[in-house]
Amino acid sequence: xxxxxxxxxxxxxxxxxxxxxxxxxxxxxxxxxxxxxxxxxxxxxxxxxxxxxxxxxxxxxxxxxxxxxxxxxxxxxxxxxxxxxxxxxxxxxxxxxxxxxxxxxxxxxxxxxxxxxxxxxxxxxxxxxxxxxxxxxxxxxxxxxxxxxxxxxxxxxxxxxxxxxxxxxxxxxxxxxxxxxxxxxxxxxxxxxxxxxxxxxxxxxxxxxxxxxxxxxxxxxxxxxxxxxxxxxxxxxxxxxxxxxxxxxxxxxxxxxxxxxxxxxxxxxxxxxxxxxxxxxxxxxxxxxxxxxxxxxxxxxxxxxxxxxxxxxxxxxxxxxxxxxxxxxxxxxxxxx
Length: 337
Prior knowledge:
The chain is of the alpha/beta class. It folds into two domains: about 5-185 and about 230-255, NAD(P)-binding Rossmann-like Domain (Rossmann fold); about 195-225 and about 255-295 and about 310-330, UDP-galactose 4-epimerase, domain 1, CATH 3.90.25.10. The chain has helices spanning about 15-25, 45-50, 65-75, 90-95, 95-115, 155-175, 195-210, 230-240, 260-270, 300-305, 315-330; strands spanning about 5-10, 30-35, 55-60, 80-85, 125-130, 175-185, 185, 215-220, 225-230, 250-255, 255-260, 280, 295. A seven-stranded parallel beta sheet has the order 3-2-1-4-5-6-10, with helices on both faces. α1 (about 15-25) packs across α8 (about 230-240) and α7 packs parallel to α9.
C-alpha cells in the first residue's frame, strides 16, 4: 500500500506546495488538516482531486482542540507527518501573543501527544521550527549554524523556540522519530501578504492595475535575509523524512542568495510594468524588535541529504509578482496592507 502523509496547515503556502510536490513526485496518499474557517484559495486547484478522493483528503481539526487532533490522527494513520500549521506571522504576534503561543506551543504538544499515544503508529515526524529562534545574532556569528544560541525577538520566535525543544524532547524521551527544521526565509507564489516581499509584490500589482497610487509602503528595509523558494523548501522537507532521518536531529535549511529587504524590493520594482513608483516608510509596518541578520549555514543538511536550492532568487520574485497580478486580474480585491 502507498505511504500516507499527514500535513498540518495544508491550506497555507508551504502546506499547499508540499501537497503539490507529494502528489506529483510520489505515490503517497495525502491527508491534510484544515480548520473549518481556513481560507481555501491555496488548494482550490486540488478541489477536483479532493472531491473525487484521488489520493488527497481533508480532515477537520484545530491544534487548540485535543479531541479533534486525536480524531485527525486516527483518520490519517500517517507514515509521515509534516507539522506546518502555526500562527506564522511574526509582526502579528506582537499584537496577539496569546493567539500565537497557544497553537504554536500547546498545539504542537497536543499533536505529538496524539501520535505518541497511538502505539500502532511510528511515523517520521517533521516539526517545523524557524530561523526566527536565533533572533538577534551578532554579525560575527554569521553564517548561523545549528549551534548558535537562541535570542528570540518576537512572541512568534519564542513560540518556535518551544516548538523546537518539544520536537527534541519527544524524540529523546519517547523514542519518537521526530526531526526538526529551522527554515530560513522562503517565499514564492501563495505567500501571505503579511510578509514583506509579498506585500511589496501585491502593492506593485495593485499599482499596475490602477488600484493604488504609485507608492510602495515599507517597514524596515535594512534587515539582511537569505532567500529560498518555497518549492525548493518542500523538496527539502521530503528529503528530510525519506533520507535516513535521525530522530532528535535538527537542521538549518535555507537558500544561497542573501540581500537586504530594501534590495529585494528594488528587484521587484525592476519587474514593474509602470515606472516612477516611490517608496515610503510606514511606521505601522515596523516590528518593536527585529531579527535583522538571518543568514544560514546549511552545511549539515546539505551533507546529510544532498539537497541544494534550484530556483533562482529572481525567478522566485517574478513568480511571486505574477501570482498577485493573476489574482488581481481575476477581479479579487485586497486590503491596502
